[in-house]
Amino acid sequence: MTLVTRVATGATAALLGLAVALSSATVPAAAADAATLTGIVLGVGADQAQRTVTWYSSADTAQKVQVAPTEQVVNGEFPANPATFDAVGGANVSGGRFNRHATITNLKESTAYSYRVGADDNWSPVYAFKTQSFEGDYDFLFFGDPQIGSSGDLAKDQAGWVDTVNVATAANPDAELLVSGGDQVETAGTETQWDAFLAPDGLRRYPWVATIGNHDVGSKAYEQHFTVPNTDRSGPLYGNGNPASNTSGGNYWFIYKDVLFIDINSNSYATSQGGGGDAAHVKYVTDVINQHGNEAKWKVLVFHHAIYSPAAHAQDGDAKLRRVDFPTAFSSLGVDLVLQGHDHSYSRSYLIKNSEKANPDEQPGAAEVTAGPGGVLYITSNSASGSKYYDISAPKTDQPSSGAGNGPDPLNPSTYWYNSVQNQEHVRTYVKVGVRKDKLVVENLRSGTCAAPNAAVEKGVSCDNDPAAKPVGSTVDKVTVHPYNGEGQALSVDVPNAAPGEFGWTIDGYNGLVDLGTAEEKNGDHFEAAGSINPIVVSDNRRSQAPWSISASVSDFSDGAKTFAGSYLGWTPKVVEAGAGARAGNPVVSGFDDQGQGLAKSRGLGSADQGHPKGVAKLGADLTLKIPGDVETGGYRATLTITALSS
């Protein structure tokens, strides 16, 4: 019997979109009715290429997050193979619900994404977020004490909070983070307050950087609602020293572009309560900065209890204690900015060094300041919801104007010695921080006026705001902070984005036909034919040096209605011409020899690892075809589909 076998090479490139990393832990599945999914909130990841998503579920079922570029989501329908991230979580401490969270990884810059949570046939609505460039300048927004429920009118508090988030994100649509000053709610374990806090749609579009306030700490709800990266939940970082208790706690850090953020649980400040106190936080901040401080240009600390605030809490004993425990450490560690809440009023400190004014000549309200060695700026944020305001208090003339004291400012005796600006109009505000290559720009902005929604004012608190002169979006205070660049001359250079380069492949010579000739009978039980594929030329000059791979699979061979399996084809890949870090794939034997799948299953022709050099490679493969002796006579063809993958 004479068998003429021909193989036609078809070229198909497959684009690899979003890389997927699955969590190692999963939630056990249970037979149950469809879960109700609530409290969905987008959170910050370990860097700008990550996000977290956290939510509540009415059922203890296996769930996940699906993510796809928004351009691939049509009429709410996700593509066939979206990136999928399994959720982890457990039973809530109270309330009969279950918490779930997942971390989205390997996001691409300057890309709009859509996501949803749940499981097959039971998905949440689709939400969206957008990444920006992973390098360069950016803005983030800081919000003080929504404390939903503190006015006594949950609906009014929610309305003010929703309005502030809407105003802030509408005015700053490209802001990249929403940072919390703590006290998300009035009562830590009251889920109706958490539901109201999570009402703004912006909390599903922009990552929320959570901070524990004293009103959040008294249950596990804070930890159940928010997922934060690089979390240390050891005993010393809890107020009572006991992470297993029904309280929330812990510190965390992350790097976003040029900023190292460190967020600490300031509810743990006294060792007499069982925790590690301020010393544990100083150690934590010191360790993080020593390990990661060189990875970022700026260092920003966030915690709830303001130490240089202007109002009701300015003279609290714990504030005075921290005023001694923290500033020297922060100055020596090169901290640039400290963001705080708790006092429901706005203040901007002078640059503080070692518990004193760094420059005695710095003027009140200066628009430009230069940090000098050890100078740190402290910001206290006003209420972002209007649920509660504290009036500014008077300094103590019998106390020192340094250290723990609450004495007056020699340059402005009606204010505390440490504050350059103090403000309380009883209107909602938020803080915008512009991160620039050579400065930080800090601006306090009005998100409301005396008019509703403004719960405290609606319930009788006075209001000092002229909406014509100080409308929504107007500036309360603005300062530009220039860093200390040393005693000599600092050098700076900007490196622009290089052309990204290209990755591509072609069939050498563009001849798609591989003729294996006429198969020869062997041992009276099978036929064999051999040949080589036309070489594949791979060119990669991308700056990213991302990994790549070329693979292929073969269809069944056919001649009209007559067929035999593609599994009978095997190969031995080789690098014909070295370059671009190429290495050959593993040999694959004909399925005739091992009853395997041969090239009917996709097999690697060649690949290169991350970090490979730029260049051009040529890949080839010797083909071996072994087919059973009972195959009918004919001229057979098959298609070899070649797939290129690269991130």
Automatic annotation (TrEMBL):
Recall the GO molecular function terms of this protein's record.
Answer: acid phosphatase activity; metal ion binding
Instruction: Write out the entry's keywords from A to Z.
Output: Signal
What residue stretches are annotated with the Calcineurin-like phosphoesterase domain? Answer: 140-346
Q: Which residues are the signal sequence here?
A: 1-29
Give the Pfam families listed for this entry: Metallophos, Pur_ac_phosph_N
Say yes or no: keyword Signal present.
yes
Work out whether the entry's keyword set contains Disulfide bond.
no
Q: Which residue ranges are recorded for the region named Disordered?
A: 390-415
* Domain (Purple acid phosphatase N-terminal) ranges: 40-131
Q: Which PANTHER family match?
A: ACID PHOSPHATASE TYPE 7, PURPLE ACID PHOSPHATASE
Name this protein carries in UniProt: Metallophosphoesterase
